[in-house]
Amino acid sequence: MIRDGRNGTFPEALDYDLVIVGAGPAGITMALELEATGLRIALLESGGEEYDDATQDLYDGRITGLDRTDLLTSRLRFLGGTSNHWGGHCLPLDPIDFERGPLNGMSGWPFPRTALEDAYRRAHTYCDLGDFDYDPATSVGTGPDDFLLTDSEAVDTAVVQQSAPTRFGPKYAAALRRSETIDLWLWTNVIDIEITADGEARSVDTRTLTGMPRRFAARQLVLACGGIETTRLMMVNNRRNGQSFGDAGGLLGRCFMDHVEGGAAFLWLDRPTPQKAYWRDDIAGPDGVTRSFVWRISEDVLRRDGLANAQFYLIPFADPAARAREREANRGWRGLKDMAKWVLGRSEYDFSFSDSYCQAVTHADAVALDALGLIDRSETATRLLLRYEAEQQPERGSYVGLTDDLDALGMPRSHLHWSPGAADRDSIIAAARLIGIEAGAADLGRLELEDHFDQPYWDANTAWHHLGSTRMAASPTSGVVDPDCRVHGTQNLFIASGSVMPSIGRANPTLTIVALSIRLADHLKALNAT
Amino acid sequence: MSSRRAFLVSLAGLCGLGVAGALGSLRYCARRSTATAARLDRLDVALERIHAPRTIGRAYRAGMDEPSLLAQLAEKPGLASAMEIDCPATRSVAIAEQIRSDFRDGDVRIEGRWVVSRSECIIAALRSA
C-alpha cells in the first residue's frame, strides 16, 4: 500500500515489524524480498513518486577536496532514488576484491565472493538482467577477431551487462501498491532514531516538509537511503543524542570512496582497425541483454604488482584525414542534392544557389572519389582512448562530514571531502603501462599516457558512486557495521547501502548494492524465523 | 722586410696555430665509429612505429653520452645483427623481433609519456643526436 505521509488522518505513532528508511534500489529490493515473510514493513521515502525541488534541496551540501563531484544532482530523492537517473552498467565485484584487503593495509571484505554469489544471481532479476554470465566468449555474433589482446597475460577482456536501466520506482510501484504487508510512506523524512543506551533501536521520528510529525516503532530498523545520506543520518543521530554507535574506531563517515575516472592514455594503433566489440553497442548475451566490453588487468598481475583494480573503456578515434575527406564529400553531395531539389521545386528551407553551387564545385574531387568508392567510410580506428574507471583506496582523509548549515528539517547538511590519493593515480598509470607493454608485444600499437597525471587530482572525475563511509568489518574498531550489516554497538539497526563496502573494486556498484540488500534480507528472515 | 710581408707572415703563422689548435682539440671529442655511424640509419625503420621519436630520443638521451648509447645498442643482439643485414625486409623483421622481445621481457620505458621498448629508446636517442 502507498500512503501519503502528509495526510493528517493517519495516526502519529505506528508499530511495524521492520522499518526501512529509503525507497531506492536497496530499500525496495529489501522490502520485496521480505514481503512473503508476512512481516509488517514500513518503507519510508522522503520524496513522492515524482521529482520535487523542495525535497531534492535536502540533499544539498558542501564539497571540498576533488570538487568535480556533486551532492545535489548526483542523487535523486524520490521513489526509486538515484536509480531514476542511473546509467545501468552492471557487473559483480571480482573475486580478488574479496580475497585481498585494501592495498593500504585496512581491513577488507570479511567474507569471500562465494558468500554473495546467490544474492548476485537474484539481484539480476531486480535489475532486469538475464543470466549471471560474464564470459565474453558467450556473446552472440562475436568471435575471437572481435577482441584485442586475447593472448595477453596481463590484460583481460571483461563484460559489463547493461540494465534497461531499471527505474526502481516506476518498475516496482505497482507491486508496492498492491502489497498487503508493505506500507510505502511517501514524503516522510527521518529526523531522529531512538536507540537505547544498550543499543536497541526502537523507533524513528519523521517529519514531512509540511510539518507533519510521525513516529514509526519497529523491532528492526534498516537504513537504506544511499551512501552519503545513511552516513549523515547516523552522524546527526550520534551527535544529537551524545552517542557513538558504529564509531568505536572513529570510522563513521571516513574512507569515502568513489570510482575515479578519466582518460588514461591513447593507444596509437599500428594499422587502422575495423570495428571491435569494445566500441559496438549491438552485442548481447544469449539472454538478449546488451553487453559492453572493457579491458581489465588480470587478477594474477594485480596480485603480483600490488595494483588497485581498474577497467578501461576503449573509445575509437578515426583517421582524421579520412574523416576530413568524408566530410568534404558529404558537403559536396549536399550541395548537389540541394540544387537538384531546387530544380524540382522541393527545397525544404531557404535555398541559396550560390552556396550550394560553391559547395558542389569546391568539393567536386571528394564527391568523385566517393562515387568511385575510394573514400573509406568504414568505422576504422587509428587510435583508442583508454578511459579508466579505477578503484580508490579507503583513506580516512576522504570523508563525509556535517556542516553548520541546516536544511529545511533542521538537520545539518552533508559535507563531502573527496580526496583520491597519489597511490590511486600511480596505480592507474601502472595499469596503463601494462596495457602499453601488452600492446607492444602483440604488435597492436604504442601507448601514449595522458598529460594530466602531474596536475592536482590529475584531472580525474567522479563516477557518482558514494561508497565506503559506513565500512563493513568484523571488528568494531575497524568498521561501522559488522559482516551482517548490523551497526556495531547496536542490536537491531542495519545498513543496506554501498556505504558498507570496505573496498570497491572496479565494478559499478548498483548490482552489488542490490545483492547486499538481498543478503541482508536473508539474514533478517533467519532472525525473524527464530 | 716590408711591413706588408711581415703582416702576411704573421697571418700565416696565426692560421697555422689555429689549424693546429683545432686539430688538437678534436682529440678530445667523442668520435662515432664510421662503420657504426654509417649503419645506424639501417635501424630507422624502428622509428616509423613510434609517433614522437625526437621527444622519446631526447628524453632517453638526457645525461647519456653516445658511447654509452652505442654500448646499450651492442647489448641488443637483434639490433646489432640487423645492422649487418643488407635486405631491408629481413632487417625490418629482425628489428621488430628485438622490439617485441623487449616488450615481452618488460624491458620497457616511459619516455616523453610514451610506453616504448628499450631498443626503440636507444635508436631514437642515437638518431636524435
Automatic annotation (TrEMBL), chain A:
| Key words of the record | FAD, Flavoprotein, Oxidoreductase
Q: Does the keyword Flavoprotein apply?
A: yes
> What is an example of a GO molecular function annotated in this UniProt entry?
oxidoreductase activity, acting on CH-OH group of donors
* SUPFAM superfamilies xrefs: FAD/NAD(P)-binding domain
Q: From what superkingdom does this record's organism come?
A: Bacteria
- Which cofactors is this protein said to need? FAD
Keyword Flavoprotein listed: yes
Q: Identify the InterPro entries for this entry.
A: FAD/NAD-bd_sf, GMC_OxRtase_C, P2Ox-like
Q: Which Pfam families match?
A: GMC_oxred_C
Name all Glucose-methanol-choline oxidoreductase C-terminal domain ranges: 395-516
Tell me its family. Answer: Belongs to the GMC oxidoreductase family.
Question: Could you tell me what this protein is called?
Answer: Choline dehydrogenase
The organism of origin for this protein: Tropicimonas sediminicola
Q: What is the lineage of its organism?
A: Bacteria, Pseudomonadati, Pseudomonadota, Alphaproteobacteria, Rhodobacterales
From TrEMBL, chain B:
The domain of life for this entry's organism is Bacteria
InterPro entries xref list = TAT_signal
Query: What is this protein called in UniProt?
Result: Uncharacterized protein
